[in-house]
Amino acid sequence: MLKNKDLTDRKVEDLKDLEKQLEGDLFQARFRNFTNRLDNTSLIKKSRRDLARVKTALVQKSKETSK
Fold first, then answer.
1. Distance (Å, rounded) from C-alpha 60 to C-alpha 39?
2. Where do the structural domains in the chain lie, given as residue ranges?
């Protein structure tokens, strides 16, 4: 689980890379769940929330730079 403090300290490029990685992880988790190969289904929910945290941090960073 990602913490908000950790995300605000990162650079925009790092956040974008992390966003792509989390999107890939979420896709893989959904695919494994669909094919009944995912043991821990809570992983999907955790991935979605982490992805939302990263996207929120990116929006906050873009608002800070536009001021």
1. 35
2. 4-62
- CA distances in angstroms from 3 to 26, 28, 30, 42, listed in the order given: 18, 23, 23, 18
What are 26's two structure tokens? Answer: 């979420």
pTM of the predicted protein model: 0.91
Answer yes or no: is pLDDT of 67 > 90: no
| Dihedral sign of CA atoms 48, 49, 51, 56 in order | positive
DSSP letter for each residue of 37-49: --S-THHHHHHHH
CATH 1.10.287 holds for 4-62: yes
Place of tokens 């929330």: 49
